[in-house]
UniProtKB/TrEMBL annotation:
<keyword id="KW-0547">Nucleotide-binding</keyword>
<dbReference type="Pfam" id="PF03481">
    <property type="entry name" value="Sua5_C"/>
</dbReference>
<protein>
    <recommendedName>
        <fullName>Threonylcarbamoyl-AMP synthase</fullName>
        <ecNumber>2.7.7.87</ecNumber>
    </recommendedName>
</protein>
<feature type="binding site">
    <location>
        <position position="125"/>
    </location>
    <ligand>
        <name>L-threonine</name>
    </ligand>
</feature>
<dbReference type="GO" id="GO:0005524">
    <property type="term" value="F:ATP binding"/>
</dbReference>
<feature type="domain" description="YrdC-like">
    <location>
        <begin position="16"/>
        <end position="203"/>
    </location>
</feature>
<feature type="binding site">
    <location>
        <position position="155"/>
    </location>
    <ligand>
        <name>ATP</name>
    </ligand>
</feature>
<feature type="binding site">
    <location>
        <position position="70"/>
    </location>
    <ligand>
        <name>L-threonine</name>
    </ligand>
</feature>
<feature type="binding site">
    <location>
        <position position="185"/>
    </location>
    <ligand>
        <name>L-threonine</name>
    </ligand>
</feature>
<comment type="similarity">
    <text>Belongs to the SUA5 family.</text>
</comment>
<feature type="binding site">
    <location>
        <position position="38"/>
    </location>
    <ligand>
        <name>L-threonine</name>
    </ligand>
</feature>
<keyword id="KW-0548">Nucleotidyltransferase</keyword>
<dbReference type="GO" id="GO:0005737">
    <property type="term" value="C:cytoplasm"/>
</dbReference>
<dbReference type="InterPro" id="IPR005145">
    <property type="entry name" value="Sua5_C"/>
</dbReference>
<feature type="binding site">
    <location>
        <position position="235"/>
    </location>
    <ligand>
        <name>ATP</name>
    </ligand>
</feature>
<dbReference type="InterPro" id="IPR006070">
    <property type="entry name" value="Sua5-like_dom"/>
</dbReference>
<dbReference type="InterPro" id="IPR038385">
    <property type="entry name" value="Sua5/YwlC_C"/>
</dbReference>
Length: 324
């Protein structure tokens, strides 16, 4: 299989020729990394068991962790899962965009059982990035895509990040610039009576509450993740991560937020204006850059918990969690 023997990873831009090449490879069952507005995805044909297995293998991901099926439009989603009024309402308002819905899988859903890891539900998303939309339309099938990084590492927001982790393990990378949102999609479970937030992300809980009313946010229990993929340690750089830092120690570099007089090679500011959207877009790239300094620990200044801050802090807490 392609992911065991190193292959030559090609890179194309997101113009018509690159998209056509990427779509053809996906239809052949090969793996293609592509840009979305959240992070780069490692795509494979969601209807092919072999392609889905190759995704798990390339990422070295535990196979109990189910994948999101990406679609060109909401209409296509109705073939895979059962929609209700709530799902239609959020889909109409927030798709295309950084929101994943977990819905009951249709009995005749063409998606590989491996992609949903044996669950009765399926996660689906219609991404907003123009290149992702063109690619999905050209493929004409659902594309399973986790973030295009080795399992447990920091998610990729540039083509170079993808190559750093997966060069030789993916057939093609579609280069489509920096991801505008920079954090993974929000995962909302609509299989039960009350909507449940499985992962905070690019759509805020405030936006969802405005549309749906109260949303359950499960207690964090690291031994029993609500979403199967929500392992406590995740998004981890090589360096240790220390949260809510004030002053920094000798072997530390600083990731700060908002007005801060400290600057220099050991300091990066997620957003000196204190803008959480800008901070989200910078988060993963800055964690990678600070990691490359070789410092023992990345100290992180406090970040507000409101709006996109909830998702930013979720990722930072996972980066700081004890490693297996
Ligand atoms: O922004 C994103 O969502 C990116 C881009 C590429 O679209 N993808 C992404 O995929 O972050 P991944 O595989 O890294 O995260 C998928 C999350 C995991 O936490 C997984 O457990 C959860 O969605 N998930 C998938 N299917 C599920 C299901 N049937 N029930 C509950 N959670 C599910
Ligand atoms: Mg991921």
């Amino acid at each position: 299989m392609e992911s065991t023997d190193p292959i030559k990873t090609q890179i194309v831009d997101d113009g018509p020729a690159g998209i056509a090449r990427a779509a053809a490879l996906l239809r052949e069952g090969r793996l293609v990394a592509f840009p979305t507005e959240t992070v780069y995805g490692l795509g494979g044909d969601a209807t092919s068991d072999r392609a889905v297995a190759a995704i798990f293998e390339a990422k070295r991901r535990p196979s109990f962790n189910p994948l999101i099926s990406h679609l060109a439009d909401a209409e296509q989603a109705e073939d895979l899962v059962l929609f209700d009024d709530r799902a239609r309402r959020v889909a109409e308002t927030l798709w295309p965009g950084p929101l994943t819905l977990v819905l009951p899988r249709r009995a005749d859903s063409p998606v590989s059982l491996l992609a949903s890891a044996g669950l009765d539900s399926l996660a689906i998303r219609v991404p907003a990035h123009p290149a992702a939309r063109r690619l999905l339309a050209a493929v004409g099938r659902p594309v399973a895509a986790p973030s295009a990084n080795v399992s447990g590492a920091v998610s990729p927001t540039t083509p170079q990040h993808v190559l750093d982790g997966l060069s030789g393990r993916v057939s093609l990378v579609v280069a489509g610039g920096r991801c505008a949102v920079g954090l993974e999609s929000t995962v909302l479970d609509l299989t039960g009576e009350q909507p449940v937030l499985l992962r905070p992300g690019g759509v805020t809980i405030e936006e969802l509450t405005a549309l749906l009313g109260p949303i359950a946010v499960p207690e964090k229990d690291p031994d029993r993740p609500a979403s199967p993929g929500q392992l406590a340690s995740h998004y981890a750089p090589r360096a240790q991560v220390r949260l809510n830092a004030g002053a920094i120690g000798p072997d530390e570099v600083l990731l700060t937020f908002g007005p801060d007089l400290r600057s220099g090679p050991k300091v990066m500011n997620l957003s000196d204006k204190g803008d959480l959207a800008e901070a989200a877009a910078n988060l993963f790239a800055m964690l990678r850059a600070l990691d490359r300094t070789g410092a023992g620990t990345i100290a992180v200044a406090p970040i507000p918990e409101t709006g996109l801050g909830a998702a930013i802090n979720d990722r930072l807490r996972r980066a700081a969690a004890p490693r297996p």
